[in-house]
């Protein structure tokens, strides 16, 4: 209990004093996660929509595989990305290992199946409602997917937030491919792991509180930005 | 003028999992007027409309328009028994078919506002369409179906579950539309069929049992089953 209170106090202190290191780590966390999320959404949302409207022979198998990929162990993803980006790996020439770009790649791989799967479920239900209408109106396949993406934006927001939550809290993969280098690849989760290892539980808890606050803030901001039934959309 | 009609069904059959739902149907729909499809529940009214509109492919036989299919699809509309409202505003629902066809936003908006005025929804433009009442939603669905000036409109029991006032309003819209649009409508309301029909198709067990001019059908049905149906008897 004492550690918890001390952690809250430390978090408050860090925030109030605008601790430069905290701000740097927080901004890097946000930057890495939001970039990974943007990539995951760019791939996962249309993929979810496509799986909802398209019928093909291996569709069920594809959906099952997608759902199975949600459970990918982050550490394994980190290891695979590490091997791909390491100097002797196929992408080693890019020199991305131990950079934020490597962390973005690992996070994008981890959360894309999650985003695509939730998006697929949301759009599958909407597609059941819209199917006949859109076919009747002669909408092209891309118009159908676009309609589902626009009208299903609440479900898609949930998909994106789930992806954000998984990515911002991820530690194993980013530790492996980022290396937790101070001033370069240290993010909130790796900093928490480091401080816990050092025995500075108060600081670790303080960073944890900030991490949770960040997730809440992004969630609230997203709901506010994407709220439906707004006037003046035209 | 190039027209999508007549529509010809030749031995058209709709089947699901080996069971015939409708057909074989031989039918020609020429231009002009309103055709009302009647029949007891399960007789295949909805299936026939869906088959004609192309929502379902025939298992056998042919459904042919006077124009190629791709062109014919753009000249028809369909109103569903359970109106489908997009999760958007009334205005956006009305403009939607035009936007799908690439009509510029400003023109689509103007047409949607005009359509809303004609069906009495102009005070609901920014309201979320799914929050409309049943009657309002069906008016919206009909106005949205008519906004592209289709040559032919399929309406599947558009007044089912509506009260008298809402039904009168929908019928008024259908009568106005019938001046320029060929209407094919399914209903189980005989009063409505008498008020709207120029032609009647009486379906029984998925097949056309009797068809012809509405006056002749209602005054002197040729078959025992049609007579029984008009008398309100239960048909097995």
Protein topology:
The complex is a heterodimer of chains A (234) and B (236).
Chain A: H1 2-16, H2 20-53, H3 59-69, H4 74-85, H5 100-136, H6 141-151, H7 153-168, H8 172-178, H9 188-198, H10 201-225
Helix pairs in contact in A: 1-10, 2-5, 2-6, 2-7, 3-5, 4-5, 4-8, 5-6, 5-7, 5-8, 7-10, 9-10
Chain B: E1 7-16, E2 19-29, E3 34-38, H1 45-53, E4 60-64, H2 69-73, E5 76-79, H3 90-100, H4 105-118, H5 134-146, E6 152-156, H6 164-177, E7 182-186, H7 190-196, E8 199-204, E9 207-213, H8 214-219, H9 224-230
Parallel strand pairs in B: 3-7, 3-8, 5-6, 6-7
Antiparallel strand pairs in B: 1-2, 1-4, 8-9
Structure characterization notes:
The complex is a heterodimer of chains A (234) and B (236). Chain A is 76% helix and 0% strand. With 234 residues, chain A is mostly helical. Chain A has a domain at 32-187: MetI-like (MetI-like fold, Orthogonal Bundle), CATH 1.10.3720. The longest helix of chain A is centred in the middle third of the chain and has 37 residues, at 100-136. Chain A is globular, with a radius of gyration of 20 Å. With 236 residues, chain B is an alpha/beta fold. Chain B has 2 domains: 15-85 and 150-193 and 205-236, P-loop containing nucleotide triphosphate hydrolases (Rossmann fold, 3-Layer(aba) Sandwich); 86-131, no CATH class. Chain B has helices at 45-53, 69-73, 90-100, 105-118, 134-146, 164-177, 190-196, 214-219, 224-230; strands at 7-16, 19-29, 34-38, 60-64, 76-79, 152-156, 182-186, 199-204, 207-213. In chain B, α3 packs parallel to α5. Chain B is globular, with a radius of gyration of 18 Å. Classes of the chains: A mainly alpha (234), B alpha/beta (236).
